[in-house]
Amino acid sequence: MNSYQKNLAQKMDEYAHFVYKVTKNFPKEEKYGIISQIRRSSVSVVLNYVEGYARVKLGVRLNFLEISFGSLKESKYLLHFSLVERYLRKEDYIISLKMAEEVSAMLWTEINNLQKYCKK
Fold it and tell me: Which end of the chain is more exposed for a tag (fewer CB within 10 A), N or C?
C-alpha cells in the first residue's frame, strides 16, 4: 500500500470506531438488529479494503474494493435510518456523514484508478 491507500485505510478505521462509539447509546432492544448490522457494515468497509490489498490479482482486488464501497453505502443508509428513528443524535450523524463522504470520495478514486489499470 502506498501512503494514499494507508491514509484511506486509517480513515476507514476511524469511521468504524466512530460508528461503534455512537451505537453504544442505541436502545438495548436493537442489539441484534440495527446495532449489529450498522457495526458489521462499517467494519466491513475497512476489512474488505485491507483484504483487497492482500490479493495479487487486480480483478480480485477490484472486487474487494467494490464490496467495501457497497458496505460504506449500507452503513450510510443505516446511519440515516438511525437518525430518523432518533437513535442517533443529529450532531453525531453530521460527523459520521462527513467521515463517510470523505472515505467514499477517496475509495471511489481508488476504484476508478484500478478499473482503468485493469482495462489496459
Answer: C
Q: The domain spanning residue 98 has which CATH number? A: 1.20.1440.60
Find cell 471511489 and name the residue: 108
The total number of structural domains that make up the chain: 1
Query: Which domain range does residue 89 map to?
Result: 3-119
Output the tens digit of pLDDT for each of the chain's 120 residues. 789 999 999 999 999 999 999 999 999 999 999 999 999 999 999 999 999 989 889 889 999 999 999 999 999 999 999 999 999 999 999 999 999 999 999 999 999 998 888 875
**At a CB cut-off of 8 Å and minimum separation 6, what does 79 contact?**
19, 38, 88, 93, 96, 97, 100
Q: What is the pTM of this model?
A: 0.93
**Cα separation, 71 vs 41, whole angstroms:** 5
